[in-house]
Prior knowledge:
About 55% of the residues lie in helices and about 10% in strands. With about 120 residues, it is mainly α.
Amino acid sequence: MYTRKNPPTLTCGLDVTGELLYGKWKMRLLYFIHEGHLRPTQLQKKIPDASPRVLLMQLRELEQAQLVVKETYAQVPPKVEYRLTPLGASLIPVIETLGLWGDAHLEELREMLMGRE
C-alpha cells in the first residue's frame, strides 16, 4: 500500500475536503451512486474512461472516508452494491453546485484546458 512521504496539512475545511475528494473520479462516483447506480459494473458504464482497477481503488478510499458503504450479498455470483452514507449524501449539493458552475463556464474552461495540452 502507498505511504505518503509528507503527511497532508489539514488545517482548514478546504484541506480536509480536498484530501477526501482528491481523485479524478471520486465526485462522479458519489454523484452516480446518489443517482442510483450502485453496482461496480453500472459505475464502470457511467465512467468508461476509468479503468475498473482505478474505480475500485477510489471506491475503497471513499469507503475508508465513510462517504460510501459497500454491501456484499451472499449469493452466487457475489453481488456488491455501494450506498452513500449520510456524510456522503451531504456532499451531493456541493457536487451539484460545482457541476452547475462548470456548465455555466463550459466553453471557456474547455478552451483553457485544451490549450494546456
